[in-house]
């Protein structure tokens, strides 16, 4: 089991830099930040961009994986996003992981005047988004127009060596998204039941997670891919609460998720107030007990 931390992009860089350094020093395998223009209950608070934040994180860390959680079509164009990604990955010397999601309704859509799409339309757009992003990063030369995007005469540099672009982590809870993960993802991401933020105990959500794991296996098999080549990443603290309530709870959750088939567990760095309220000493103590000296990306 690999372990990660989400750091909300809410602090001025002098303070934020210390957090990113601390996560690496504690032995976590990867650290992530959210990619939003404005975000839920913190819409009236300080909130920095993910790409500059990860660029800064790349300069103050040396080995830890760095992740976007998650870029969506709500305000990203694949060609522009690709340029940002390879630029950060260059600074990070190959440590960047690009999380991708379909994009739910919210501020990222409304403040730019975007249309409210039906679920099927969002899925169609996500297909086009991931396919074009992969083509630009892996192939370099792209000239195509779809119902969703235009990439006219793109000659993209720097190009991936031998077509091996930076890893995608595809967030999906349904068959179409899982099919995209199977085609393009090195990771599959879930936080549990979709659009459910009731913060239930892990034991209540495990049946849903096991069903999702079976769905990812089936998607890989339909694509002719060995399911064992897909890393399965669970992001805690959205539909599941209490994991970082104590070191014991954290250890128990990690064990149960690993037994079910997850390869990666990501929690949020505890904050002094909601959301993700908790005692940051728990993630420190867990790391000192379980992770220091054992990290292997």
- Secondary-structure element pattern, one letter each: EHEHEHEHHEEEHEHEHEH
The stretches of 5 or more residues where confidence is low (pLDDT under 50) are: none
The average pLDDT score comes to 95
β-strand percent reads 15-25%
**From the helix content, strand content and strand pairing, which structural class follows?**
alpha/beta
DSSP helix count? 9
Q: Using DSSP, what is the number of strands?
A: 10
Jot down its keywords.
297 residues, alpha/beta, two-stranded antiparallel ribbon, 40% helix
Structure report:
The protein has 297 residues and is an alpha/beta fold. Helices cover 40% and strands 17% of the residues. The protein contains 9 helices and 10 strands. It has helices at residues 13-26, 50-60, 78-91, 107-110, 119-139, 175-184, 202-222, 247-260, 280-290; strands spanning 2-6, 30-34, 65-71, 96-100, 141-145, 150-155, 168-171, 187-190, 231-235, 264-268. The strands form 2 sheets. An 8-stranded parallel barrel has the order 1-2-3-4-7-8-9-10, surrounded by 6 helices. Strand 2, helix 2 and strand 3 (65-71) form a beta-alpha-beta unit. The termini are close together. 41% of the residues are buried.
Structure summarized in a few sentences:
This protein has 297 residues and is of the alpha/beta class.
Give the arrangement of secondary structure elements.
Layout: E1 2-6, H1 13-26, E2 30-34, H2 50-60, E3 65-71, H3 78-91, E4 96-100, H4 107-110, H5 119-139, E5 141-145, E6 150-155, E7 168-171, H6 175-184, E8 187-190, H7 202-222, E9 231-235, H8 247-260, E10 264-268, H9 280-290
Parallel strand pairs: 1-2, 1-10, 2-3, 3-4, 4-7, 7-8, 8-9, 9-10
Antiparallel strand pairs: 5-6
